[in-house]
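Fold this: CDP-diacylglycerol--serine O-phosphatidyltransferase
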Amino acid sequence: MLEPSTDTPVIDRRRPKGIYVLPNMVTLAALFGGFYAIVMAMNGRYDLATTGIFVAMVLDSLDGRIARLTNTQSAFGEQMDSLSDMVSFGAAPALVAYEWALRDLGRWGWIAAFVYCACAALRLARFNVNTHVVDKRYFQGLPSPAAAALVAGFIWLATDAGHDGQGLQWVLFVLTLYAGLTMVTNVPFYSFKDLSLKKSVPFATLVLVALGIAVINIHPPTVLFALFVLYGLSGYVVYAVRKSKGKPVSVLSTSTDEPDERGLHE
């Protein structure tokens, strides 16, 4: 006589993983900012196009912080953020720059725009690969939002002054190439990630923040573009100072337990 089977089927009652709404809605809003910039550039509204890129920058700086504060980080969110950045800070600035002035340079114009777009993609891919081995205090190369701010900030400033791009084609050409190529260098740029919003700060810090807001409001296009130009040069200053003092200039960590990452730190 056969013994009754004691094996009972195990039913996996785990619910399928969902998607966290809040941080991904912010990321989608940032993506919309980049898409909006492209559409406005196609319609000749470069003031609104540059505004869309800067709004995307603000939203991009918030989605990660919101995810950490609400403990809603996810691999999906990281990939979504990277794809959003490619549109808002890679394709959008390149296309806005091309439509505004680079088109007049013929093949040189679209080459500059493509180099910027390609460097943004390479920079984001490298960032995703090196996330766990890079010194959190620094970015490896100019971050894509700052590169986008250089290009969009120049167009915003020139448009605000009444220029339509004529006579500024080669200036934008050089700036676009500089922003693009600096993204894929190993130059260290301060990331501000060691600044915590949860820590108490002296009262004077709030006064300085208020003064900073007041200064920006004097003339936002000029002040913001100047700030991003200084930031875009700061990495080379840090690199030169470290090099002159004999300090390591690489922002990659000096040790890791991951075998696939051997050789990254040489």
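Residues 79 and 198 are 27 Å apart (CA to CA). The domain at 21-246 is CATH 1.20.120.1760 (Four Helix Bundle (Hemerythrin (Met), subunit A)).
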